[in-house]
Amino acid sequence: MNEAADRLAEVQDHIADAAKRAQRKAEDIRLIAVSKTHDADAIRPLIAAGQRHFGENRVQEAAAKWPGLRAETPGIVLHLIGQLQSNKAEEAVDSFDAIHSVDRSSLVQALAKACIRAGKQPQLFVQVNIGNEEQKGGCAVADLPALLAEAKEAGLTIDGLMAIPPADIEPAPFFALLDELAGRHGLPLRSMGMSGDYETAVMLGATHVRVGTALFGARDQAATIAGFDRG
Predict the structure, then answer these.
(1) Per-residue pLDDT tens for 180-193?
(2) Model-level pTM?
(3) Which residues neighbour 74 within 8 Å (Cβ) at sequence distance 6 or greater?
């Protein structure tokens, strides 16, 4: 538990320092602990240290481990940060408090129907393919206005944008672009920044940072390859 608390405190301190340099308030940045591939026993120490927001990549994985953890500790907020199959929209709406990966028309329509059935809507982010990478999910920058308009027409409220910059390239210009796009469309939230670059993201407007390795330690290669829900 002490190791988890120390890691959490260190990340929180880095967020606070970056926010101060950017003349922002640290409390305006939400830290999401990326718990994908980690079992309940690995997650509990962070919960005990006070962390309440967690991110998962797969609907099935979250369904297997989070009901029990949430029963143990009230106030857990669960974020879906991986790509989502349209046919799992209903499960995602039932299980998650926020979905960061809205990226195409079929998913907008599936989520709209699922939200009507459930009588609730999670907080929603449109994922933008900020680096125009073929292998990555996300809405193309040029298609963003149309997707936002379709979501509004379908009755969905989009609160922000999410992006994952290309690997091994300076992320700052991509974070700045996402911040500009969110501002242009009147969206208050920006989900950007991971273990290697979350401080830069905070300085460039992130409201949500998704941190895994810095909180849990390095995953083994097989677990890392587990990847996203795709569809």
Answers:
(1) 999 999 999 999 99
(2) 0.93
(3) none
